[in-house]
Amino acid sequence: MPLSALSATQEARRQIEICNACRYCEGFCSVFPAMTRQKAFADGDLTQLANLCHNCRGCYYACQYTQPHEFALNIPAALAEVRVESWERLARPQALARLFQTQGVALAGLLVVALAWFFWALTMWRPVSGAGFYAHLAHNTLVAIFVPAFVLPLALIALSLRDYWREVGGGRVRWAHLMRAFDQAARMKNLSGGHGEGCNFENADRFSNHRRVMHQLMMYGFLLCFASTSSGTVMHYALGWEAPYPLLSLPKLLGVPGGLMMVAGAVGLALLKLRADPALGAVRVWGGEMAFILLLGGVALTGLALYAATGSALVGPLLAVHLATVMVLFLLMPFSKMVHGFYRLAALVAEAGRPAPSAGGDT
């Protein structure tokens, strides 16, 4: 069968079997030690290996069997396609995942709809009293809008992860497995390369930790912003301290640095993506991934702008824009690149619970 006629899973299996015979890249990341446990790979095994892959691309540039060799190996692209297919296949509904994973225009269109809706809501539901942005939309109204928009997508992701766990044959989860997986995720270990020098994502001839740092800025910035919102919720309901909060309050001390980190991370990731070779990833989702990066940056930037505009006539319009970006981010969690963090963590937990590979170092 010609290579062009192979499905994404069949092509990944062909390439992984060649890699397993060679094993030159054994210490590069978690993928290569994991594949040494077996010689034949079921579909679930390939799904697990694909979600362990962080697309650092070091293996491609080190490989002697890439084109023009007849084996034509391109492991980063092969696993990227299987990885994206797994997110689409396990999503509910699948059609939305296929749409928003691949089409940045679709994400932009949803954002336009959300913008129009929030401008309408701020006009129709403006409260008779309130301070700060609560003068434009009441606290209870915001809760009624955003709690379902946050909880329901998380429930869909939980169902998808349950199916993922079954597909890859994940076993019983122990505390040690969780700790190891969270440690690797927190350090972004698989973006550090085989020897901690970084990866070759944007430059074939140079190892770099830029992508790792940008991911860390984005992840920890997002967590700080989430902690900011959570602390504000506790202060509102448990302590009776309502927004707006001063600069030296916990929501602002967490949220402002978090927002700045997210903006920096989004700019850095977008620039790296523009420099990288698209042929070493899932080409069909490039636009959707770039749109998602810009959306994350937009959420942070509009939040910072809203805080900077406190007390001015710009609060209303900026509030509508910020709420629209947050709403789209929440609604698309199961159907956009946002879901990759959940799957990669699940893959690391599953890997931590398996026997040590027959060869290789720290995985």
From TrEMBL:
Keyword annotations from UniProtKB, A to Z: Membrane, Transmembrane, Transmembrane helix
Q: Which InterPro entries match?
A: Citrate_utilization_prot_B (IPR012830), NarG-like_sf (IPR036197)
Superkingdom field: Bacteria
Membrane-crossing ranges are 99-122, 142-161, 217-239, 254-274, 286-308, 314-335
Q: What is this protein called?
A: Tricarballylate utilization 4Fe-4S protein TcuB
